[in-house]
Amino acid sequence: MADTTATPEETTSSSNEVKIKEVGPARKRLTITVPADAIDEKLEASLATLMTETSLPGFRKGRAPKALMQKRFGSALKTETRNQIVADAYSAAIEENQLKPVGDPEPVTNIDELELKEGQSMEFEVDIEVVPDFDLPKLDDIEIKKPQLEITDEMIDGELDRQRLQIGAESKVDSNFQPGDRLVGSVKATRKGEEEPFFEHEEALVGVPGEDADGRGQVLGLLIDGLDRILKGAKVGDTIPITTTVPETHEREDIRGKEITIAYSIRQGIRVTPASLDEVVERYGMVDENMLREQIKLALEQRRDYEQADAMRQQLYEELIKRVDFELPEKLSENQAGRILHRYEMELLYRGLSAEEIEERLAESRAQSVEVARNRLKLFFLMSRLAEENQIQVNEQEVNGRIAMIAAQRGVRPEQLRNELTKSGRITEIAIQVRDHKTADKIIHDFAKVSDITAEQWQKMRDEKLGTGDSSGDSSDGGAKASGKKKTTKKTTGKKKTTKKKKTAKD
């Protein structure tokens, strides 16, 4: 490909030479040369700082001879100075050339082998993936269907059953595990042909697949076909070998496409016995079952409104992906894959799914095709541009409001959830979610042609789309279902929560 040399104007921040070369779709290689005088100046400044702040035996602080300080700290000083020079030069190159990186730079040069020498320049290369350049599509002829969903007694009954499981009593089971039981045990995951495990954990949770799960379940965040057969006849104390191939879209690049074996040692089995209706009524402080049903109906109506809006957004997302074509980076980087998964996890939290359901959905997401994962990345770039074009801003109050809503659905305090999201680095994804929802809602309101359809028509439309294998958008089933029920994938939905944190191979 052509070599494009960028010659940025000289500024006080940088006098470095920067060459930029296209090395793939949305991927650039930066060759940065730091001149000798800048190297010498930085070394002198670092040594002066060291002499000021460091004392040696027999000398007052700042009075030790320069030659002695260089002999004592020279190697460490050069390493620290080199790393700072590289970081500053990279930042300046990005800013001065108005590049928009996606994720962290990937060094081409082995930075650890670079050596600072007085009177000599230093050159290094890094590859970066950048936001692709593309034109936005027409928006004024997009057609959106708005499903009209009614809350029925059947849906209320289903939610009552969920609540009965939610507050049901746990009991230990040692064998003859049934659908819906949860297993706790230790895991060791090993790549084929290797003896040492690449991942170990002592508190791994595995759910026995429900009757409507086609025998599939998640282990370490990976979807395992025939998990019901693998666990059949197992008992506490057994070590079960599970062999699977890691999807090519997994966020850990070192195990993508690899065959691995997970040795799962069962330490405990847990079964939940549903509470009685009277216990649910008492738990929530209701007068009787009728009042409880009314409260459930109100909650389901609110959830329906969320899912109705989500269904419309999903249609917009699918249409945008079809209308815009631009080159993406050739492969999903580990950072990109992780962020895509985090964004999907935030969507699932927003929809009010339980912890077990979220783990199952994430496992299903990892098992999907590379095309689906790349479409999600494409959608991220699209929504970022559309938000910028429409001047969509997100404030702290909106982020806190979304966290409070998700916390209420999970039955935890907002500050507890915020702390969890902050510690795991996912708080930014909440802001992105709010931004994308605001952007999509504005486009639908200002440009799209919206028409109402019945629940039956909506379900038929979604079934036809799934039947054609259309996976252009999100891995969800497109928002609200005709039943209006909260989406589930297993009959384990709503089981009593555990305080143990699940672990996946990405951790």
Description of the structure:
By secondary structure, the protein is of the alpha+beta class. The chain has 3 domains: 3-129, 2-Layer Sandwich (Alpha-Beta Plaits); 143-166 and 286-467, Orthogonal Bundle (Trigger factor, domain 2); 169-273, Roll (Chitinase A, domain 3). It contains 13 helices and 14 strands. Strands 1-2-3-5-4 form a 5-stranded antiparallel beta sheet. The longest helix is centred in the middle third of the chain and has 35 residues, at 289-323. Mean pLDDT is 84; it is low at 1-13 and 475-504.
Lay out the secondary structure.
Elements: E1 3-6, E2 17-24, E3 27-34, H1 36-53, H2 66-96, E4 106-107, E5 122-129, E6 143-148, H3 153-166, E7 169-172, E8 182-191, E9 199-207, E10 217-219, E11 222-224, H4 227-231, E12 239-245, E13 259-273, H5 277-283, H6 289-323, H7 334-350, H8 355-366, H9 370-389, H10 396-410, H11 414-423, H12 427-446, E14 449-454, H13 455-467
Parallel strand pairs: 6-14
Antiparallel strand pairs: 1-2, 2-3, 3-5, 4-5, 7-13, 8-9, 8-13, 10-11, 12-13
Low-confidence stretches: 1-13, 475-504
Overall structural class, as computed from helix and strand content, comes to: alpha+beta
Strand arrangement in the largest pleated sheet: 1-2-3-5-4
Average pLDDT figure = 84
The span between the termini is: 38 Å
List keywords for this structure.
Chitinase A, domain 3, disordered N terminus, 18% strand, five-stranded antiparallel sheet, 507 residues, alpha+beta, Alpha-Beta Plaits, 3 domains
